[in-house]
Design a protein that fits this description.
This protein is mainly α. The protein is 43% helix and 5% strand. It folds into three domains: 77 residues; 133 residues, Orthogonal Bundle (Cytochrome Bc1 Complex, Chain D, domain 2); 163 residues, Orthogonal Bundle (Cytochrome Bc1 Complex, Chain D, domain 2). The strands form two sheets. A two-stranded antiparallel sheet has the order 1-2. The protein has a two-stranded antiparallel sheet with strand order 3-4.
């Protein structure tokens, strides 16, 4: 017998007997005569009060028993249908119809300064050198391209406005060009996440034969060393005139860490400006959380691949088959790809979208992601362990009003400064070829 129950019985039974005897004496000698009751009335009152005392003791006993065996008690209640069973996801693709309540999502603004590695501390001279190198065409094989050729900081908000990258000799790459604005907050770079830092990322395009196509790091060093002004700038930035490829990419990375755009309606709203978002944008913000977009695009940089609160940088895409797979060739060799979660900051300014740049409408991107990543394309089957049966969960596609509100919220993630620059570039007449 459980020790708690034994202790209760050892003390409780004598106490009950003593209590009932005392109660009987009180009724016979005091309460009965005071109320003018005869012998029968006295015994009836004694019995009623005794039953009340006994019921109270029984309740205490049940409480002691339940506290002594909480797990088995809940199991019995569950089998009898008095408590709904817990049904966790078994990891085989079934949805949990009663998931645990998630913790409250916290909306955050973007810091004004990006973290920097210990081996590449910034200084104004290094940033100025990096800015010049970012626009240096001599870092391409045929002298026609620079980093800025694909990352237009003004007109295209850090992208190039093309479906996929355009390299030297008119070659096209397989991937859409990500923006460099706020890239300093990302933990991994490139669509496949292969670069762990801005320094590692900057090396890639310069030496890639279908991008900038420079023959070797030594060739980059030779070309820049021939310019005395570069030797002077490297001396100011690094302390001596040595021009090394590693310093080239460090200077470019130092410049890119200054490319921060946090002047958005969203940031103003989170900082306390209640009028910064329109009603549609506020509805879209609520939907962004409730439908699950924050599962991948969380934190102040709206990316799970971020240095700021990110958890899982890569995702399968498309995770769920939809009609969009063939419409926008989303599969890679017939299978879903594994891609870095991109930041959604300035997303409204950086189309076309997705890894292959195949979608040129932001509302269509919302529909694709809702279906492919959130399962909003029909119904899901769920396994109910207790009933040994399948059940259906409605996962209807988002309505057009919901899509419009989500797009409105995504537009609120655009920098006011970059939006103004893009608008000014669009109005500027093109140069004659």
């Amino acid at each position: 017998m459980n020790s708690g129950i034994a202790d209760f019985l050892g003390i409780g039974i004598p106490a009950v007997v003593a209590g009932m005897l005392l109660l009987g004496l009180m009724v016979q000698r005091e309460l009965g005569p005071f109320a003018g009751l005869g012998p029968g009335g006295k015994w009836l009152l004694s019995g009623a009060l005794g039953m009340g005392l006994l019921a109270f003791v029984l309740k205490i006993g049940v409480a002691v028993a339940l506290s002594s065996h909480p797990e088995s008690t809940v199991d019995r209640l569950t089998r009898n249908g008095l408590v709904p069973p817990a049904m966790p996801d078994d990891g085989r693709g079934f949805a949990n119809p009663m998931p645990p309540r998630p913790r409250q999502y916290v909306w955050e603004t973007l810091p004004g300064q990006a973290p920097e590695p210990a081996d590449n501390p910034s200084n104004p001279a290094k940033v100025a050198l990096g800015r010049r190198l970012f626009e240096e065409r001599r870092l391409s094989g045929d002298g026609t391209l620079s980093c800025a050729s694909c990352h237009d900081l003004d007109a295209q908000a850090g992208g190039d406005g093309r479906p996929t990258a355009l390299g030297i000799a008119g070659q096209t790459g397989p991937r859409n060009v990500p923006t460099v604005w706020n890239a300093a907050f990302q933990a991994v770079l490139f669509w496949d996440g292969r670069a762990p830092s801005l320094e590692a990322q900057a090396r890639g395009p310069i030496l890639n034969p279908i991008e900038m196509g420079l023959a070797s790091p030594a060739e980059a060093e030779r070309r820049l060393a021939a310019d005395p002004t570069y030797r002077a700038q490297f001396a100011q930035a690094f302390g001596d005139e040595t021009i090394a490829f590693e310093r080239i990419v460090q200077a470019i990375a130092a410049f890119e860490r200054t490319l921060i755009a946090a002047d958005t309606p969203y940031d103003r709203f989170v900082r306390g400006d209640a009028g910064a978002l329109t009603p549609a944008q506020r509805r879209g913000m609520a939907l962004f959380e409730s439908v699950g977009c924050v599962l991948c695009h969380r934190g102040p940089n709206f990316s799970d691949a971020s240095l700021l609160g990110g958890e899982d940088a890569l995702r399968y895409f498309p995770a769920t088959p939809t009609r969009y797979d063939s419409k926008y060739p989303l599969l890679v060799d017939g299978k879903p790809g594994v891609w870095r979660v991109p930041s959604l900051r300035n997303v409204a300014l950086t189309g076309p979208w997705l890894h292959n740049g195949s979608v040129d409408r932001l509302d269509e991107v919302v529909r694709i992601m809702a279906g492919a990543q959130l399962g909003r394309s029909g119904e899901l089957m769920t396994w109910l362990d207790a009933d040994r049966s399948l059940d259906r969960i409605d996962r209807s596609p988002l309505g057009e009003a919901q899509v419009a509100d989500l797009v409105a919220f995504l537009e609120a993630l655009s920098s006011d400064r970059l939006r103004a620059k893009a608008a000014a570039s669009a109005r500027r007449p093109s140069r004659p070829s």
